[in-house]
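Please fill in the sequence for the structure shown.

STRUCTURE ENCODING:
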């Protein structure tokens, strides 16, 4: 059994903003953003473990704003790194669970296009999300 996470409300908000923000970034880069957002959100809501409980909590603490994808990326990419670092300090297994969950969600969002193949813009955004998850 892995150690329980001790997360503040702010920690939980950062984790949720990072996860849902990653899906939002890929959706924003997609030719079919609504399909991408739905597919990614379904994947996040299917998360298990302690991270699953955090991601699925009914909350209004996800605050992503900005008028451009760059504005969104300025918030989400550092949040991904911060969330991963926080989880890594407390419970490396849950940090891995978070990384895997976000990457599965981003992959689902990326494949939600008409032909099931992400385009180069989506591939690049996925690369940036992956890098942020592994910077911690």
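FILLED IN BY: designer on duty
SEQUENCE:
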């Amino acid at each position: 059994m892995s150690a329980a996470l001790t997360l503040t409300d702010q920690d939980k908000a950062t984790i949720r903003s990072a996860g849902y923000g990653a899906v939002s970034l890929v959706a924003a880069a997609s030719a079919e953003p609504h399909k991408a957002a739905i597919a990614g959100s379904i994947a996040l809501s299917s998360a298990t473990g302690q991270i699953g409980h955090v991601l699925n909590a009914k909350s209004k603490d996800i605050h992503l704003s900005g008028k451009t994808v760059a504005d969104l990326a300025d918030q989400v990419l550092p949040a991904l790194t911060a969330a991963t670092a926080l989880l890594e300090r407390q419970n490396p297994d849950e940090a891995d669970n978070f990384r895997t969950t976000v990457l599965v969600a981003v992959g689902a969002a990326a494949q939600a296009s008409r032909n099931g193949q992400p385009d180069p813009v989506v591939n690049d955004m996925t690369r940036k999300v992956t890098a942020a998850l592994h910077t911690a």
